[in-house]
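Worked problem 6 (solution included).
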Amino acid sequence: MRFALQTGLTLRSGQRTLELVRELGDGCYVLEDVLTRRPVEYTRQRLVDDIHSRRLIVIVGEKPSSAASGSDDAATAVLDVSSLTERERSLLEYRLLHVKALERHRVRRGQRKEVERIIEIVSRSTGVAKRPAATTVMLWARKYQKSGMNPLALVDGHRVRRSPKRIHETVEKLVWRVLKRSYFTTACRSLRFAHDDLKRELKLAKENRLIGPEDAEVAYATLQRRVDGVDLYQRVASREGVARARIVCRTSFPDGLPTEAMEQVQIDHTPLNWVVICDRTGLPLGRPLLTVAICAYSGYVLGFYLSFYGPGVSSVSGVLRSVIRVKDKMVANAGLKHPWLSYGLPDELVVDNGLEFHSFAFKTMAMTLGTDITYCRVRTPWLKPHVERFFSTLNTLTLLKGRITKTVANVMRIDPYKDAAITFSDLVQGLLMFCVDVHAHEPNWNKMATPFELFAESIARIPPVAFPHDLQQLTLATGMSKELTLSQGGIQMLGLPYGCVDFKTIVNKHGHGLKLLCKWDPDDISKLYVRDPDSLAWYTAECRWKNYAQELSYNQHRLIREFRKRDLKSPEREESLLESRLALHNHWLDSTSSRGRADALKAGRYQDLTSHKVLSGTDSAPIAPPISQLVAPAEIELGDVDIPSFDSFSFA
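Solution. The predicted structure is:
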């Protein structure tokens, strides 16, 4: 439909009706409310933009030309000329030729004689022998003018018409009942099975005289059309589950896409497909876990963390520190060819629903750093595609020895634990080279640039947010946290005692048993940072077992405790402990119970009590210890020695 910015143009804005009444200078127009006559000034650009964005609706005649209307004019507006077939296009041009001829000769659609004359003129010019009737051409002109000069109004109505259902209402109910019972179920039966079931239902309904003989047959194609009429999401969800339906019908949405670097950072874990050996012992350690943070705007790797502890808060804390810190010294020591540009705080973290991302420690990190958290829906990996794509590229690395492969029938599989050849330090060095020198410079053909170029251009335009000013603040922001109880002996964390002089102030004011927020570095638990509940200051408490806790990680300490716990709970130790407890119990019974005559006689024989020892006068006192042994202080006797007197003199 066409419109012109002329006096009399009527527009609908919500519940208000506006009319264009005057054109001002410099491309401005005055519109008035038809009820209150309140003027509103619009510029030409704003007025046309509001009409195209449908904030203002053009009113033609008595009804608005809204796409939400159910009229034929609204239905033709959704058609596209390019979607018409060749026959429909030629027919449209033929009808439009007659309508345009009426306009050129200034013939109104009610002048039948003049319309017949125009039809004859058009027929001679086109050379078409078959001529349309005057009534038909008048109907074409009426549709064209009523639609606001929309050529699509001349298209045949079958393009937008809806075929009426010819099936009896009772049969229609039986069709949907059978589909719900036999097809839209998790049994995933075929449509042919549902059609056979429908035949049985129709036969039974015919016998019960619910339907006539002419309605007792439904074609297979009709049943197929009913199934196709259901939304694809509902079809898949009813047969294969909601999760499968989300995968089949997944799509990307335009809102929420990042426009600058560090605006959205995606974090995820994956176990590597290589067995790593220890640098010190040379023994295989197993498959390490890789935690990666990637910029969603450029696909640039911002940081990674490699460990054997599995997905947890320590891995997330390690990768956040890798993202925030400046990496110039690391790149120089590694001898890489290109710089690692990433540093600073991300604006938003996109994570999945792992337990470590829902933990109190991780949420505390995000709040301290001022970073938002976005949780993806369960089983929707396409919502963080950049990190998933990075994991798939790791399989293209040329490291062959120690690689874990799938088991294939009739193919000899080499044990990766016996074939492992890469040490942990070499693997870290290789991943660093891959992230900085290889992956960052692979072209992104969708954006026609490399991740390095996109990231460098973005941070040059908008630098990232500044990071914490000291390492202690960074440790507090990215460290693990938990509320621990302050007791008389300080604070206990997994059996390790921590003490601080500042605890005395807290105990004097609040007493013992107070729960305090504590933070610690997951890579070094020799220090514990405790927050004062009043001043909110952070105190540093050192571990009293300094030799043990120095540079000891949190996960190492947990593993040591678990190993010792299993050792102490071993069957051998439990059996030995039970025997010792039983022996102690028997000892107390023997020492305190009354003895019989036989036991007393036996005890006398053991002590070798005879008359000879009594008559011979043998002293039964204990033998004195030799001189070389220590003497008790009570046994020391000091003799009285006279101290001689001396004469004094002076050198003066």
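Discussion: The mean pLDDT is 83.
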